[in-house]
Amino acid sequence: MNIRLRQFDQHGIKYGFVGKVGTPPAFDRPNQVHGTEIIVADPRTTGPAAAARSDGDGILTQARAYPVGVLTADCLPVLLADQRKTMAMAVHAGWRGLAAGIMRAALLMFRDGSITPSEILVGIGPAISGANYEVGIDVINAMSGPDCGLSKSQIMSCYNPGRRDHYQLSIAKIAELVLTNAGVPAKNIQIVDSCTFANPNLWHSYRRDKPNVGRNHSWISL
Questions:
Q1: Could you say which DSSP state residue 149 is in?
Q2: How far from 183 is each of 101, 108, 178, 215, CA to CA, in Å?
Q3: pLDDT band at 8 (very low <50, low <70, confident <90, very high)
Q4: Quick one: CATH architecture of 11-129+175-221?
Q5: pLDDT above 90 coverage of the chain, percent
Q6: What pLDDT, on the 0 to 100 scale, is given for residue 210?
């Protein structure tokens, strides 16, 4: 399995997920801090290079052929663009970012660009699966707060009981539900169903390999 380059059908928006196999293109990216800030790439002042810029956990571009991306090692990479090819965004979504509302912040940026949720295309990349991601009640409580964007019943559908006082949490399902709640059609969301923890030949995983862990590269370009 070599997930190197995928392309949204009929729209020509290039995006990719590269772990231990393949070489990503140079891309502009934020300095990720597990928050909700989304920075705007400016090709006039910064060329695409795999070196972080301003603090943030998302990066937006409106320039053609100017890749933007994020780095992950179990967290969720989410790539978004609109069908008219006016905006593209890469988002780093760990549990802290999801609980704080990073996906809602991303959608707000599109709304500010006069793009409706029905026009947004989404690629959700490889991340740790619920079967391999056990968290404590503190994480569940954080996800149940007002900023995440899900109802209590929806949050409950995203986890299963694990070891004593632990829960197996699917961060991919959380992101998908936040997107569909906001009006993004389910048919516009593509998910790479490949667990970073369970596939050591494909992906880097913090939980599996810490502290000497590499990073998976996720990028998108109009």
A1: -
A2: 16, 12, 9, 31
A3: very low
A4: 4-Layer Sandwich (3.60)
A5: 80
A6: 87
